[in-house]
Amino acid sequence: MVPMTPRKRASPWATPSSWLVANARSLPREGRALDLACGSGRHALWLVDRGLGVRAVDSDPEALRALRAAAEERGLAIETEILDLESGSVDLGQGVYALIAVFHYLHRPLFPTLVRALAPGGLLLYETFLESHGGRRPSRPEHLLKSGELVRLVSPPLEVLAQREGEFDGRLVASLLARAPAERSGVSRG
Question: What is the pLDDT of residues 122-148, one digit of tens each?
Fold first, then answer.
């Protein structure tokens, strides 16, 4: 008889958000994706493994090193970039991404930049903490959404396809999936 070794339990932070998984069928199967404020890249890895070209951006060089190592270990190619998202001069491009994913990060002035970076018909998948999350990390009011605020931050110009608010995965969050218009006017926002 061969002795069994205990299996390591996957950290809940190593698996993608239930919001990402729940919307998998709606996500593009090709094109470029941006994982904004990616941390150690659990969502970036999930997206690149499904065929998207992924740019992962974060201000933490250690987290990006861990992401590059995890991607290399799996034989996946991910573009990483250290970027201060709160510097005021963030340029993510215009009409570039079929998908932008943002999880557990909020900097309200970035919303026009995110909208501008979406390709026509591109999707924004967003989830972050609500004010009622209080007492848990993060606790600063500028990093917490009011009820209904996430929808107001993106529409218009984005069309909200799905949304939720409440406790999910042990966190009080607001989540949405929104789509950019299929055609863009020549007017630049933001």
Answer: 999 999 999 875 555 555 677 788 989
What is the separation of C-alpha 30 from the centre of its chain, rounded to a whole number of angstroms?
17
pLDDT tens for each residue of 54-74: 999 999 999 999 999 999 999
How do 159-168 and 53-58 pair as beta strands? unpaired
Q: Does domain 21-179 have CATH number 3.40.50.1110?
A: no
What ranges do the domains of the chain cover? 21-179
Look at the pTM and tell me if it is higher than 0.70. Answer: yes
On the question of a cis peptide bond just before residue 3, with omega within 30 degrees of 0, the verdict is no
Quote the CA–CA distance of 177 and 4 in Å, as a whole number: 43
3-state SS, one letter per residue, for 101-166: EEECCCCHHHHHHHHHHEEEEEEEEEEEEEHHHCCCCCCCHHHCECCCHHHHHHCCCCEEEEEEEE
Helix, coil or strand: residue 98: strand
End-to-end CA distance of the chain: give it in Å, rounded: 66
| Spatial distance between the Cα atoms of 110 and 171, rounded to a whole number of angstroms | 23
